[in-house]
Amino acid sequence: MPDKSQDHDVAETSEEETETRQQCVSCTEEYSPSDIVQTQCAHNYCCDCIVRLFENSLANEALFPPRCCRLPIHASTTVEDMIGIEMMKRYNERKTEMSDFERTYCSIPTCSHYIPPQNVRRGVGICEFCAARTCTDCKTQGHRGDCNYKNTIDHSSASDNKKATATNKATATNKATAKNKATAINKATAKNKATAKNKATAKNKATAKNKARDENYDLLVKLARKKKWQRCFKCSRIIERVDGCWHIRWAECCPPISEF
Predict the structure, then answer these.
(1) Which fold does the domain 18-98 belong to in CATH?
(2) What are the Low complexity biased-composition ranges (predicted)?
(3) Structural domain boundaries of the chain?
(4) Confidence of residue 90 (pLDDT cuts 50, 70, 90)
């Protein structure tokens, strides 16, 4: 005859296992507690779903950090074991990037990688991926001298007049400087003339390079004025308006406070 007491013990064991299993709030499947991570809001996620949640947050800045019920999901030891070393590294890098409210990205369009603060020296960031130099103020290619492009978008005529006056003063100064240089060259010896010529050549090359950069930037500024684009008041990047009203919430740039 079958042992009914043994069947009863098996049934009790099965019920206990069922009671200890927990349901994933995302896929609704049941798992053992060791395969579940619980969030701040007491919701449970399985390994596959928590990995998917972190992958989506790394692919879209607006979804970072990963959340449940609008509360961040902390990278606990259990989460680290689930998502793996490589994804955990990417998570920490993105966390550093998102905590930088004056972040700079590589000025080379085909690169555009984030430049961390430790790679910035004297207002110029060096990209770890392509070694390009980027000005941390105007966000364009690195250049010599002070940067005056941080607040170049201004719709007021007063600002334009000030710029015109400054340009005229600079032109007059350049003419006077050129005249003084010519006088100095005439008085100098042949050796000094050759030295001055070499210096002038090097300066002209640098000036031409900066002029090309300035022309490209001026075109961008003119387009921004025409389209009435604005700058983020934190990271200084120009924001393109695609559609909707003029009220801008730039969540991907400086979350969560950039709203203007």
Answers:
(1) Herpes Virus-1 (3.30.40)
(2) 164-178
(3) 18-98
(4) very high
